[in-house]
Amino acid sequence: MPHDDIPNMFGRVLSGTKYGLKQTRGKFGLGAKMALIWSKMSTGLPIEISSSMKGQSYISFCRLDIDIHRNIPHIHLHEKRDNKERWRGAEIQVVIEGNWTTYRSKILHYMRQMAVITPYAQFLFKFVSDTSDKNVTIRFARRTDIMPPVPIETKYHPSAVDLLLIKRLISETSRENLLQFLQHEFVNIGKSYAERLIGEMGPDFSPKMAVKSLTSQQIVRIHQLFRQAKFDDPSGDCLSPAGEYNLRLGIIKELHPDMVATYSGSAQVFEGHPFMVEAGVSIGGKDVKQGLNIFRFANRIPLLFEQGADVVTRTALKRINWNSYKINQAQDKIGVFVSIVSTKIPFKGTGKEYIGDDISEIASAVKSSIQQCCIQLKSKIVKKIQARVQQERKRNLSKYIPDATGAIYDVLREMAQLHASKKKRYEDEDADVLRKVSTHSITKQTLSEKLARHVEQVDYEMALEYATQSGVSEEPREAIYLQSLEDGKNFIDFHSPVFAFRLYQ
Fold first, then answer.
1. What does the longest C-alpha to C-alpha distance in the chain come to?
2. Among candidates 25, 361, 343, 345, which has minimal Cα distance to 156?
3. CB of 214 closer than 8 Å to CB of 158
4. I need a surface site. Which of 40, 117, 129, 182 has the fewest CB within 10 A?
5. Cβ distance 158 to 230 under 8 Å?
6. For residue 450, what are the CA distances in angstroms to 217, 317, 443?
7. DSSP 3-state assignment of 364?
8. Which parts of the chain sit beneath pLDDT 70?
């Protein structure tokens, strides 16, 4: 954070810098101010901020609270300090009053969800009690350094603006005429289409007219035309999803499931805003309850409250037929992870705690993403069932080897006696086998060993056929040991939202 901006960034409500159209964690910078106001109301203590930007030779330190009535920062200390260690980042210390006993589970649940969606970050949580036996220290370790791309600020889509926004864009634009304004302040309006729109607005409009001279009635006409006209959908290039690789890694890192499937959908549109849905479904795992365990994220931020009304919860409970995917909704430990990113998250209520179920485009995308994960899991579950059936068959065959061996040996011994007394003659290979039985070259033990080898051979052939159908090589796999992430290594990174590969030189 720039040194001179820190007091206003924390001590003045509605002084945020996120007014452009962009995928953001917040919108108006209210979260930091609410923490400061909560601290002032509960303990009366100021907050302390340390910040150092890249390339700065100093650390900005600020101790302040807020004058709630005048909406201005009350600065206790604001200075620049030496930064000999070249530290970079931001650190905020706030003292608040809260009920740890009541909200412990919520706090730890939030931290765990943050660790799932951001496996490239490290979290250390400490609770220090008056008695040492009640202390809590939990570390959520970093597992990758592959981070999602930074969200890109974009222009507004014509179908996503209202009258107030159009007026604000007109007041802030540097474009002089209406044609340039339509071309450069909105996405998906080229020059030819802008000229056509102006022609449809009526005789009071012309491409060269000054955009600042538009009357209120003319602005209303522009808004009406935006609602009526057809525009290409905005692209999702401005969005920054967690990525399938990171989502899968986070789930595996925190839950240790028996199996997991992830899916990342393509960009879609609602009300002129692009959005993307990523989903993961896991089976089994550590500290996972039986039934559905739902993890919701909006712009990579965990949502904890109002879960029952959320589109993800309602979709998982009511619109997914888990049995058709060989998943027992009541008995299996099922983790459902859905992350929605957009330039506008359609939260319900002022708390920003859940996404409504009334936007069909988002509901459909959530359902489709979960189903894609379930299809992957069904394939794995079916293979697991087949392998279990195969093991059971081998176990059953091996169980009957002693009885089968005894019966076969008794029959062979009677046949050998008949052959020796010449009451019944056998020729060629049969005679040779009976002679070996008489001379004890073939015994119960040798028959048992032969049958056991036969069972092993049949099992191997079936496993080979199964592996061939599954596309798995029968050659033994070589153990590979991955090096830890260390500084000073020369390497090239190849990564996409689905995988990451590091080539050491």
1. 124
2. 343
3. no
4. 129
5. no
6. 95, 54, 11
7. helix
8. 14-21, 23-29, 423, 463-489, 495-500, 505
Q: What is the pLDDT of residue 474?
A: 46
pTM for this one? 0.73
DSSP code per residue over 91-137: EEE------HHHHHHHHHHHHHHHHHH-TTS-EEEEE--SSGGG-EE
Residue 64 burial (CB count, 10 A): 19
Core vs surface per residue 289-311: b (16+ CB within 10 A) or e:
eeebbbbbbbbbbbbeebeeebb
Cβ proximity of 213 and 468 under 8 Å: no
- Within 10 angstroms of residue 479's Cβ, the number of other Cβ atoms is 5
| pLDDT tens digits, one per residue of 311-364 | 999 999 999 999 988 888 888 899 999 999 988 888 887 777 888 888 888 899
| Segment 240-286, tens digit of pLDDT | 888 888 899 999 988 989 889 999 988 888 877 888 999 999 998 88
**Count of Cβ atoms closer than 10 Å to residue 127 Cβ:** 13
Which residues have CB under 8 Å from 4's CB, separation 6+?
Answer: none
Letter for the amino acid at 202?
G
Question: In angstroms, rounded to a whole number, what is the distance separating the alpha carbons of residues 83 and 87?
Answer: 7
C-alpha–C-alpha distance, residues 297 and 390, integer Å:
40
